[in-house]
Design goal:
binds NADP nicotinamide-adenine-dinucleotide phosphate; alpha/beta; 6% strand; eight-stranded mixed β-sheet; 524 residues
């Protein structure tokens, strides 16, 4: 039970005002919980983080201070875009705001409810000062050191480049004003989002600082603004927080580069086999294949390989754990990174599958396809001979299409369940069931779809042009490897020890102790 709530109940108050007070306490407590829930983090992490924050400062997390509607004055240094936007939002949330500026003349852009004073005067009016000024101008704070002693300084600054300075801006601020309690916050929220209210995608505010009480004061403001604070620990985390807004799709880099590389390879591979080879040997110009046929060959190949690459690291991790006989030893860095971007790999694979479906839909209206069908009919008419229905072909074609449709349906289902709004609403077991069991089923269906596509021509020597196998045969290598290894891992003689290892059992605890020692030593 929250501290404020329990003390309230023990106080024995029961009149109407007190009941209103109780309702506001409960609402406030609920707000704390729901705000963690809306972070998009896994439930376990949310609970851990909210628990951690509760542990960090039991006093400041208490509900008592919020029972009063009167909010303490907040000072903002700098009347630029960010300072003004934050000022507006704070006034809306009920905070008295005072700006510290080089010029005390107010302008129409500054909220009229706010005072504009000199830096020194404004600082004296508040316990919290938000420094909405670029790092390169922080020097002006040095003469104010005495006035700022004991105050909470909130560093909101960002840089232009990742790791632009040796120390974070927040640490630099702490060095400049040694008596102040510096907290890093708000840097991932944009002035535009604050002003326009378009904060749905960026409600998270990363907070870090060495002083727990100061951090809690900032966290309370973040809550009051309707945002979600995420405690990142001490001021040492500031550099990482400052780098967040500068990162360009960090988790997408590997999947995108990999798909670009594979696309280029399969494009030239198909060009050689399907365009250059017929031109050299049969003097046929199939260069128009570049528009639809070749892309429609590359897309399913990429979709299948990337889907298999989503499951390959899991299989490798299982082999490594079985070999080491413990889970308490770090995977190699490349495997860790690979595991972290599996969702992105899967989504890129889904995008390729989707484009493949679109390309497939236009096949009947292609001029080449219509010409091929009509010339077959004409040749039958000229020869006065109707070709009988080839039952095997009909079976292969229908099974190929059916497997493709089912595979794509499950693929889409996997994509939908990886959306945060959906994955947050399923429990861990349900999520694992969809992503692992249905994921493998999707891989099986898509692999079978490709195999059946090869059909009777799979081992036909004429399909090897310049000794090059058809591109779809290459696409089967990774998925077949993953499926075969997975089948082997399912055998009880391997599955049982693997399960035990994953539950914490160790074949050789000494080995793990040594490795942990090495990890800890390197961390120090
Ligand atoms: P800005 O529009 O350029 O405003 C900066 C303010 O700093 C100026 O209006 C000025 O205020 C003050 N200033 C400028 N030179 C100064 C000097 N030599 N000495 C003292 N004060 C000086 O910049 P901003 O966009 O508001 O950004 C302010 C901070 O917020 C930056 O650190 C930025 O990284 C961070 N931030 C911005 C955004 C955003 O969306 N804009 C988002 C997150 C974080 P006075 O004229 O009132 O003195």
């Amino acid at each position: 039970m929250p501290t404020g709530l329990s003390s309230f109940l023990h106080s024995g108050l029961g009149n109407r005002t007190s009941l209103q007070l109780l309702r506001s306490l409960l609402l406030h407590h609920k707000q704390h919980l729901t705000s963690w829930e809306s972070t998009g983090l896994p439930r376990e992490t949310q609970l851990r983080l909210s628990g951690r924050m509760n542990k960090i400062s039991p006093n400041t997390m208490a509900l008592a201070p919020n029972t009063s509607n009167k909010k303490q004055t907040v000072c903002i240094f700098g009347t630029g875009d960010f300072g003004r936007a934050l000022g507006h939002k704070m006034i809306q949330a009920g905070y008295p705001v005072v700006f510290g500026s080089r010029s005390t003349q107010t302008s129409s852009l500054i909220p009229k409810e706010a005072e504009v004073l000199s830096h020194a005067e404004a600082a004296q009016k508040a316990a919290i000062i938000i420094i909405a000024i670029q790092r390169q101008h922080y020097n002006f704070l040095t003469p104010l050191t005495e006035i700022l002693r004991g105050k909470v300084l909130v560093d909101v600054s960002n840089n232009l480049k990742i790791n632009q300075y040796p120390e974070s801006n927040a640490e630099y601020l702490a060095q400049l004003v040694p008596g102040a309690k510096v907290v890093k916050a708000f840097n991932t929220v944009s002035a535009w989002a604050l002003q326009s209210g378009a904060l749905d995608a960026s409600r998270q505010v990363f907070v870090c600082g060495d002083d727990m009480e100061a951090k809690q004061m900032v966290t309370d403001i973040v809550h009051a603004l309707g945002l979600t604070p995420l405690d990142q620990g001490s001021l040492l985390a500031a550099q990482e927080i400052e780098n967040y807004p500068l990162q360009l799709f960090p988790m997408w880099k590997f999947p995108i580069l990999l798909s670009l590389g594979l696309t280029t390879f399969f494009f030239f591979y198909s060009l050689i086999r399907d365009v250059i080879y017929p031109y050299v040997y049969e003097k046929k110009d199939f260069s128009f294949f570049i528009a639809i046929s070749i892309p429609n060959r590359i897309c399913p190949i990429l979709a299948l390989i990337l889907l298999a690459l989503v499951y390959l690291p899991g299989v490798l991790a299982a082999i490594i754990q079985l070999y080491r006989g413990t889970k308490y030893h770090r995977f190699p860095d490349w495997l860790d990174k690979w595991m972290l971007c599996r969702k992105q790999l899967g989504l890129v694979a889904l995008a390729f599958a989707f484009v493949h479906v679109l390309y497939t839909l236009v096949i009947p209206i292609r001029s080449f396809v219509r010409w091929k069908i009509s010339s077959q009919i004409v040749s039958q008419v000229l020869n006065n001979k109707t070709q009988p229905l080839d039952n095997t072909n009909a079976w292969l074609s229908d099974s190929y299409l059916a497997l493709g449709i089912l595979g794509f349906f499950l693929f889409v289902l996997l994509g939908i369940t990886s959306l945060p709004s959906v994955s947050n609403n399923v429990n861990w077991r349900e999520f694992r069931f969809v992503q692992s069991k249905l994921g493998y089923l999707t891989l099986i269906l898509c692999t079978a779809h490709t195999m059946v596509y090869g059909g009777k021509w799979f081992l036909n020597p004429s399909s090897y042009r310049w000794y090059l196998p058809h591109a779809y045969m290459l696409s089967l290598i990774v998925p077949c490897t993953v499926l075969v290894v997975k089948c082997v891992l399912i055998f009880p003689c391997l599955d049982k020890p693997l399960r035990k290892i994953r539950q914490g059992w160790e074949r050789n605890p000494q080995y793990s102790e040594q490795s942990n020692y090495i990890i800890n030593k390197s961390a120090v």
